[in-house]
Amino acid sequence: MKTIIVYTSQTGFTKRYGEWLTEGLKAKGQEVLLLPLKEAKKKADSFFEGADAIVFGGWAMGGNIVGSDWLKSKVPMWKEKKLALFCVGGSPNENPDVAIALDRALSDEEKEYVKVFYCQGGIAYEKMKLPSKLAMKAFAGMLNKKKDATEQERKMGEMLSHSYDIADPKYVDPIVEYLS
Ligand SMILES: Cc1cc2nc3c(=O)[nH]c(=O)nc-3n(C[C@H](O)[C@H](O)[C@H](O)COP(=O)(O)O)c2cc1C
After folding, report:
1. Whether 24 and 93 share a structural domain
2. Which residues contact 90 (CB under 8 A, 6 or more apart)?
3. Could you tell me the residue range of the domain that residue 79 belongs to?
4. Is the CB of 122 inside a 6 Å radius of any atom of ligand 1?
5. pLDDT value for 10
6. Which protein residue has the closest C-alpha to ligand 1 atom 3?
7. 0.85 exceeded by the pTM?
């Protein structure tokens, strides 16, 4: 079985998950190619013909998955392949916003062909581009100032006040299992 994993990553968490997924699939005897989205966009459709499975990994931004339009545009062409989409975000798994974002990531028809996964990543302010850093700091500030904040919002505001890393290779296990 040959799998191509395409990813986009600003601060490294999604790239790391791409690498963990590559290791997990290789351990199961698969042939795996890990490719940044920039490179994948330069490839002709024929490049992907030999792959049995295609996975796309993107980071969460404002409830959307960065770069996921690339995979979504290819779904009609790749209905015979095994397809997966994974999202890496700063929210912990138990944050209810995660399930909402995953549900919204694909149309009902796309859900018939693509399985979606969430992998908790983290926040790395030191690696963020300035507009991202300003947006996140503003969001954290808004949550921290909110008078009627829910317990979830209070916790998230506190977490987002500094960098953190809640990524773990165990979160690729369900993706490996799906692709095996
Ligand atoms: C502008 C902005 C918006 C974000 N929005 C979300 C979000 O809606 N949900 C979430 O869980 N994380 C959100 N994050 C956090 C990133 O998804 C998280 O830091 C992720 O681990 C980044 O992955 P990367 O290191 O591959 O770039 C946001 C980050 C930025 C900079």
Report:
1. yes
2. 60, 120, 121, 122, 123, 159, 160, 164
3. 2-123+164-179
4. yes
5. 98
6. 61
7. yes
